[in-house]
Amino acid sequence: MHIAVVILNWNGRKMLERFLPSVTQHTTGNAEVVIADNGSTDDSLAFLQQHYPTLRVIALDKNYGFAGGYNRALEQIDADYFVLLNDDVEVTPHWLDPVVEAMQADEHVAIAQPKLLMLDKRDTFEYAGGAGGFIDCLGYPFCRGRLFTSLERDNGQYDDQREIFWASGAAMFVKSAVWRELGGLDDDFFAHMEEIDFCWRAKNKGYKVLCVPQSTVYHLGGGTLPKSSPFKTQLNFRNNLSMLYKNLPDSRRNSVLALRIVLDWVAALTFLLGGKPQEFTAVFKAHQEFRNWIPALRLKRYAIKPKPVSCIYDNWLLVDYHIRRRQHFRELDTIRIRQC
Length: 340
Hints:
Blueprint: E1 3-9, H1 13-26, E2 31-38, H2 44-51, E3 56-60, H3 65-74, E4 81-85, E5 89-90, H4 96-105, E6 109-118, E7 133-136, E8 141-143, E9 146-147, E10 150-151, E11 162-164, E12 171-175, H5 176-182, H6 194-204, E13 208-219, H7 230-247, H8 250-273, H9 277-304, E14 312-313, H10 317-322
Parallel strand pairs: 1-2, 1-4, 2-3, 6-13, 7-14
Antiparallel strand pairs: 4-12, 5-13, 6-12, 7-8, 9-10, 11-13
Helix pairs in contact: 1-2, 6-7, 7-8, 7-9, 8-9
């Protein structure tokens, strides 16, 4: 069995200098570290050549984004397991073993993640993954340990290994055979939501996604695009609608998309009234791109053949969070996380 831990880098020389030591120290045995460089224009490649000359580096000719970069890099790697690891993640001793063992124990588990905590507040769940991701019935993502922007402290409350809806792309383990079966990430997404879409497509094929909190990593977050970036807003809104169009079963697609489009414009008006005109414009551009994508999305949907899947929360998270004031995962009516 061979494991490839693949770090996608784009102008991240400072991140590599800070975080690569923990990865190389704690990735041993039958695992190797590979750097996939997404056409960096800083001195990342020179740094790697000087300080890590034995590491394998796959140098891509330009920035293909998170999705395209990983797709092109993993085509060139022969391994049984891929680990997609952000360049701003600090790993811990034996971090690979519990996750891979859990995946080996169940042939239906195709994707998994460790527990993600904040790097600079190490007792708090990290935004990008927490202790495993879910979506509500309208497609809004959340995690055990994070609802919207509310982050919980880690007191061991989510240390149970369990099935989830999506695994964080910051530290995502994938069986390589399933990666190839699904065709990797959706190139068109570029970045953001691509891992949720990938996990949803895996579920449509009958696979499971798992969180294994017996492994812990620490994530800095926001290293490539800050949370306030209008481009990030555009990607998130566009890709969320696209993901819903591709993966929702026929019985739910039209009604969910109609509601989401209305709610997106409510969010856009909130941006505008809050003095964020660039964010408003980002939502407009996202919807425009989504409409242009529909012919291509229709073909992707036909290939996926969507069906009802597990681990979707059958409530409106917006109502739970903003009206019922439920800001912790354990406060949700989790019995309504369907079939999970």
